[in-house]
């Protein structure tokens, strides 16, 4: 295929001569990354022959509603954490007991099967621990230590510890589940969260070391999760989706208590509510003294079945093998008469669209690193729900300071950094307001401007966070508003774009980032569009503002042709759809370049729109797997692309006029790598590691 780039074999050790990578808090040197697999799609031995050596600089806690949630919606990132050697803990809030029949509903004689909920819960627990053992050791029957754990006085939960890798643990609280995806039910996590039921009971699984049921209040569930966070001091917490998309057709449930009424979404009510409980617990945990800060990632659930596949075939096949272990697809005996897995999952994961996606609700941003007036780079991300800043210790060295908190609370997903023409910075994010004491549960767009100049060698400081509100006045609808995208035109007017509840693109403007106008909608040419979160915008070399956004069919483009005018539809791009967020960069002399991923292959493809020209695909990069937003920069003829590979590492490509081969090696990272020019004139890639420290890659 024209423009195809040849495949470059991987190495286990980063070749510093090709891609120097500096790690730090204040140190400079070669950073070595040992990859779990030596070739695309995994190593010759797909699962490890032995557990990874334990590490302590990072820790992962996964909060899920049902035993299969992390396997469907957080993998491959769950497995990468398990195989990293870091403490990896999964907390399952409910037993997922359903109707107690361990079979698919279309199984002959299904209605006559007995309802054995304690046994079915145990079978699901067995499935999760077998899948986890397989990921960690390669042996699905690797033994576990099973015991009780007291998170709160007077309450016991079940704790399972993998003996071969004791840093891998599973915690089962065993609250009863809603038993329906959408039908409102008083006795459920949602009923407890909304206060419709004051207490929610547990269900004791068969053969459990926990010998009795417990009644949990809303606060006791929150306190239990706080105790988990205090016990494991996570650097990363992973939750399910607190902001699922509403269903196109709203179901009606006559006779339901008004408190349980509300918008129905493309997700399980237990998934959403488990994320709410995790957010509330994190808010309390962050308000207490704790040893190290925490980043949060939230994963889209059932909704992924409506979206383009963002995993490549090899990654999907591997993910399905793990799900088959959970689903007891081979029928092998594990020695437990309650069952060895979840036959409601069984062998069907290969045919379920949940298997070929892994998506976080926040799409990530390229623009979280900006230069300071003294030449140092400043990087920003969210830790403990607040914006934090790292600065280079010296310009162009790639050594980084420790993070400094620069403000905000209950910020969610990501923070974007806009650099004004005078060199000052402005931050943009989304803030969640949890319900209580007359407060609605809602989200709004927020911003903070830099206070004065950055002291030489210091960290920029910021004023109070200002709410830009939401294009959705209704609190429940505001929960679906996307992440803000900010860009300044050549006269300094700042545009902030967001996706609204219906999938429209709305914007506000503020002169120099102040005095904001009301929300307006970007116009469309013909039929209404419903875009996905993950749009991008840049100013080209001629001063024109370009905006791109994808739906499930194609990429849409708007451009401002006149000074000070908002972008207008630029006609059909005739581009294929993307599997995820889009990345734009200006081309020298006018026009823009777009990088995105291809559905089903995860391949990075590049498309150009020259000045006064039409869009066309110009390059197709070699397969490296991975998913998510791509970092992109164009500096004259030099093109630099940075992307996640199938091992969760950032990989960098550098070429003349088009992307070059992928450099071997990389570093495990979160979200999107940033590609920027440093004080020495090098285009560098900055990635945020799982331990919360930035790394700089020079291609």
Automatic annotation (TrEMBL):
**Stretch list, region Disordered:** 436-478, 559-582
Coiled-coil regions listed in the entry: none
Q: Tell me the keywords, alphabetical order.
A: Zinc
InterPro entries named among the record's database cross-references? GlcNAc_PI_deacetylase-related, LmbE-like_dom_sf
Q: Which Pfam families does this UniProt record tie to the protein?
A: PIG-L (PF02585)
Quote one Gene Ontology molecular function term.
hydrolase activity, acting on carbon-nitrogen (but not peptide) bonds, in linear amides
Record's superkingdom?
Answer: Bacteria
Q: What is this protein called?
A: LmbE family protein
One GO biological-process annotation of the entry reads: glycoside metabolic process
Biased composition regions of type Basic and acidic residues, renumbered to the chain: 437-446
